Structures are given as C-alpha cells and as structure tokens.
Amino acid sequence: DFDFSVAGEELFDQIVSGTWSVAKNIDGIGKDYEVIDKNTGLLITIIPAAFDSISFRNDFAENEDINGTLESTLTAMNISLPIPGGIGEDFENLPFPFGIPMPILQASFGLPFHTEITVRGLPVAQDIPSFGSVKFGGFGGKIGISEFFKKKPKKQPTIQISPKLKYVLEELPSEITPADIDSALAEIRNTSMDLSELDMLNSQFHSGDSMAVYDIITQLEKISTIPKRKKSKPKGWPVDVSIGYYTNDLILDMGDAKINSTNNLLSLQVGKTLNLPFISFLGGVGLYGGLGLESSDLNLSYTLANPIAYGCFTVSGDSKTYLEDVEKENCSGGAKEWGSGVPTDISLSFPGENKFRTTIGARVRVLFVDVYVDYNTGTSNAINAGVGITFR
Q1: Is the pTM of this model over 0.70?
Q2: In angstroms, rounded to a whole number, what is the distance separating the alpha carbons of residues 374 and 352?
Q3: CA distances from 124 to 104, 133, 251, 253, 258 (A)
Q4: CB 171 within 8 A of CB 181
Q5: Per-residue pLDDT at 86 exceeds 60
Q6: Which of 28, 169, 242, 311 has the smallest number of Cβ neighbours within 10 A?
Q7: In whole angstroms, what is the distance from residue 253 CA to residue 131 CA?
Q8: Strand, coil or helix: 5
Q9: What is the dihedral of CA 361, 366, 369, 371, to 10 degrees?
Q10: Any bridge partners for residue 74, and if so which?
C-alpha cells in the first residue's frame, strides 16, 4: 500500500521538477524580465529572475500548505502500487541447489601468426524444470605474444658432394694432386664452414708434404658425413604468454520474464607445457593461469498486466485478451469490456562493475585426448572441467 513517508519525497521532487520546467520559461519568475518602453521600444531596465532551480525547490519545500495538501490528497486516494512478483521460491526448486551446471560445446581453431579463435555454446536451448529455459553462446580468441620474441636458431651449414669432392674422397691418395684439393675446397668456400685447418693442411701439401693429403681427406670425410642433428628449438621466454578477448551471451527465458546477460573478458594468460618423452602415450602436462578484466550487462524484460492502465478487452471465461487501438467509446458489444490490466512491456538494464578475474588450472593430453580442469575467481566463482580432442 502507498506510504507517503516512503514515496512522498520522490513524488514531491517530480512535482517540483515538472512545475519548474514550465516556470523557468516565464519572464520574471525563471527568466529575467525586460522592461520595454511601449512608445520607443527601448529597453528601460532588466528585473532579475525571482528564482533559479535550487531556490524554486527550496521555496516549495518551505511551503507547508503545498506539502500538506499533497500528502492528504494522495493518502485519501487509497493507492495500491502494482509490484510484479519475483522468482521467489521457484529458485529454491531448481534441480541443483548450488547452481545450474551447463554442458557447453567448444571448438578452437589455430591460425597463422600464433593466433587461435574459439567458439562455444549450447547446441539447443536447455529446459530447466519448473523454471524455463536457458541459451548460451560465445566466441573469442587469443594471440601468443611470447612467440614473437623467440630467437630463431642459426641454420646448420650443409654441403653437397660434388664430383670434384667425390673424386678426392674416392681416389687413391697417391693419385691426388694439389690442384684437385684446390678445386674441392673452392666448391665449399661459399658455405659458413671454418676451412682454416684445411687451408693450412693444403698449404703443407703444396709445399711438398705428401702425407698432408691423408689429413685433408680425413677432414673432408667429416664434412661430407655430417650427421643429421636434432632440430634446434627457438630460444625465448621460459613460459608461453598470450592475450585474449572473449564474450559470452546467456539468455534465461522464464516465460513471463526474460533475462539476458552479456559478459566480456580481456585476459592475460601464462602457461607451461611439460613434455614427458619417457611416457610414450602422454602428450604433455600443462599448467596455466591468468588474470582478466571482466565487464557485464544484465537486461531484464517482462510484461506487466498494468492494473492502473485501462483498455478494451475481449473476455472468454477467465481469460482476457487486450485489443490494441480500441477507444472506450468503441469498446462495446459482444464480449468486449473496458477494464484495467493493459499489458505493459517493462525493460531494465543493469551494467555490472568491472572486476578482475583470476584463473588457475591444469591440462593433460593422452594420445589425442585433452583433459582439463580450472578454477576461476571473480564476481562469481566457477569450476570448469572438460574433455576435448586435438588434431595437429
């Protein structure tokens, strides 16, 4: 029921604001009054406005007659304010008292330049017994920034076995001449190999040291039979660092009311994967964590059968159907009647506070199956767990 001690001040402010919106344009009250000579049309003087917005309100507030009349009039009207019912006990009737588990499908796609995009959601709306249905969808992506700061290893020098080099390696040492050695060395000088020792041996060979050819052949054999080395990994940061952005949209449909919640997350993620080559089926164990700045918007919409709005209805038993754009004088005959309860669409929006969210989790890959679990803290805390399949 209406209580003037609770709503009186708000109503008073609205009445003063509405009155001032008119009075502020009246000369001498809200505007300066210009006194003009009727005969000459010249300005004689300017009388300052009697009020500004603050003094106008204060003058109203000090007038006890106005307040008394307002209170007595509203109280005598015996007003009953229409307030829609909330979720109430329905929330306690959820099948899970600790919240709503949500099975979510998610797919991530690796792209060039160390980027990844992710899509997730529910394939169809999920029904919640005695409550309504829920829809969920989202997308986002991340880019690995640490990858751009890794130093690439130097390429290992390689040589090809040319005919001249092959001749030196396969011919009898006694048949090899200094000119043959010069030709073989000339073909490998364009590589980045250090040939200083070979040049010194070749100089001895030119000087008449016939035994030097054996050392030259030994060195050339080492060069021509360089074993395949393991591919060197780029050196850089000890952990993988990435930045990402994700957005999710959740719609909770309760029939008469609908809640739409949009959440955004800008995150910094750090992780480390430990490879265990001695366990053949284990693809790696990963530890990860992150810090994110999240924002949210929650929109509530519902339809209120407004008991103080009158309109034309058709009546069938206990049900009433509102007829739009039908005036009172045309609302007669048949099952038509003029009454209260016109459906009114209500829409409210609640922007959330920006909050920091932290994440810590672990991931294990067995063959091509990934299993992960992580814990998130923020405005609301959540545990995520999942199983996925990875193709590389």
Answers
A1: no
A2: 24
A3: 10, 10, 12, 13, 17
A4: no
A5: no
A6: 28
A7: 8
A8: helix
A9: -20
A10: none
For residue 14 the two structure tokens come to 């609205």
**Cβ neighbours of residue 11 under 8 Å, at least 6 residues apart?**
70, 74
Both tokens assigned to 123:
């394939």
Residues 252-293 pLDDT 10s: 888 778 899 999 989 999 998 887 766 666 777 889 999 999
Give SS3 for 216: helix
Give SS3 for 171.
coil
- pLDDT higher than threshold 90 for residue 57: no
Q: What integer is the mean pLDDT of 144-149?
A: 84
- Between vectors from CA 336 to CA 332 and to CA 337, what angle results, nearest 5°? 85
| One-letter amino acid of 82 | P
Sign for the CA dihedral angle at 15, 17, 22, 26 comes to positive
Helices and strands per DSSP (H, E), number in the chain: 7, 14
- Here the tokens at position 327 are 């005036």
Task: Give pLDDT, residue 227.
Answer: 47
Q: Which of 46-50, 75-79, 136-140, 363-367 has the lowest mean pLDDT?
A: 75-79
Residue written as token pair 């009388």: 47
Going 195 to 197 to 198 to 203, the CA torsion angle's sign is positive
The tokens for 94 are 């959820």
The amino acid present at 273, given as its one-letter code, is T
Please spell the DSSP secondary structure of 284-302, one letter per residue.
Answer: EEEEEEEEEEEEEEEEEEE
**301 near 258, Cβ under 8 Å?**
yes
The whole-angstrom separation of Cα 165 and Cα 365 is 49
Cβ proximity of 298 and 274 under 8 Å: no
H/E element holding 134? strand 132-144
Residue 97, φ and ψ in degrees, nearest 5 = -65, -20
How far apart are the C-alpha atoms of 342 and 331, rounded to whole Å? 14
Length in residues, the chain = 392
Long-range contacts of 243-247 (CB under 8 A, 24+ apart): 243/142, 243/143, 243/145, 243/267, 243/268, 243/269, 244/140, 244/141, 244/142, 244/143, 244/269, 245/140, 245/141, 245/142, 246/118, 246/138, 246/139, 246/140, 246/141, 247/138, 247/139, 247/140
